[in-house]
Amino acid sequence: MNSFFISWVATIFPGVSLAGIPLGLTEAELESGLATYTVDDNKTLYRFEEGPVLKLTKYAGGAGESGYVFDLYEDSVINLNKVGVPALSIQIECDKVCAIKVYDFSFPGEAASAFVYKGELSSNIGLGSILAGLTPFTSLEFDRAEAWFVTDEHFGFIEISGWGVPLEEEPRQLITAICVI
To answer: How many other CB atoms are found less than 10 A from the CB of residue 64?
Structure first.
């Protein structure tokens, strides 16, 4: 695979990439690309183009699953109700990047919002936007079991998290996470 550039302001392409990280990369290709963004000798702190310093935690699941979770390093600005919400996660299955997700670890107007991922979908909608703003561009199917929305095939499949309820119940809910699958 060609080299890639990770950017905190990159456009989100459903089914293709998020933050400039393409789906389908091998784990070795991902590791190689991440290495260019490390800012410490232990390779636990990273800074992507136009982004804050993030702390990496790797995890291993079962049956060929693993992943990377990046949290805001300067977490003192995060509201206690949002502690533990990561900034970015990358899921690996069978040695390939299969999902990339960004999270809003802030409340509107808080200092932490300055560090949240700023990339947007081509519809100019991103983290912190009104979720219903996507309805002119795609249908949104609410998955009650997972408490997230899935866009349609024409728009490109992504999972969108809001407040965990259908739009009919909370039409002004904000986007709290976006996952490219």
So the answer is: 11
